[in-house]
Fold this sequence. Notes:
By secondary structure, the chain is an alpha+beta fold. It folds into two domains: 5-68, Arc Repressor Mutant, subunit A, CATH 1.10.10.10; 77-248, GAF domain (Beta-Lactamase). It has nine helices and eight strands. It has helices spanning 5-18, 26-33, 37-49, 64-76, 78-94, 136-142, 147-154, 171-184, 231-248; strands at 53-56, 59-62, 97-104, 107-115, 129-131, 187-190, 197-205, 211-220. The strands form two sheets. Strands 5-4-3-8-7-6 form a six-stranded antiparallel sheet. A two-stranded antiparallel sheet has the order 1-2. β3 (97-104) and β4 (107-115) form a beta hairpin.
Amino acid sequence: MAEVPALRRSIAILRHLASSNRPITAGALVRALEIPRSSAYELLTVLEELGLVVRTESGYALGAGVHELGSSYLRTNPLQRLAQPIVRQLAEETSATTQLAVIRGWETVYVLKEQSLKSVAVITATGVRMPSYLTATGRAILAHLPKSEVLAMFQSESGFVTRTGQGPTTVKALNAILAQDRRAGWAIEHGEVTPGISTIAAPVYDVLSRPIAAIGLSLAGEALTEDTDTEPLVDKVLAAAAEVTAKLR
């Protein structure tokens, strides 16, 4: 196989930036990836010109060009194509907003969103990213990943962010939630992403039985409180996730 060091190093830089929720300095990239300093700066300059990275006061981060590439991939992704009619049907049956989400790095990325005429307004538009530990879809996936992967994903985080003052703020607190979600087979969050909105989510598995996505169903808080009988809605979300899983296999 032909060696193309510059290409390999560029991809390594992009992947390393994608794994962090904050900008990374050139020096940190050099140390982490063992790239010669001169090469690192040359590659970062080219990647910046191409819009794949942006330079900030505190370091480098992924640029808009990466999102464009990702959006192109999602348009041709079989997961998205197979799931779309199922996610759409779930929205119509429940008069809710439904989503298909995946995890990229430590974030939930929404790749599909469907609404009925009676759906509530939520911020989970296609391409939107949220901390995976706050979202029901993110937790539904995390709960069924190996614990070592989850630990590696968050062990460098000194503190979790919150959007509404709710949700786990440490790895220990997250693990307690994931243990509960693992036993249940589905996840739920109340107002941790959007005030007044609750979401139920269930994982989608690939042919190797690995969770690769999750289907979420969002309703106004008064329609889905902690005292609500969620079983009928949970059954519908689980059935939709199982149907997508079957199509992928």
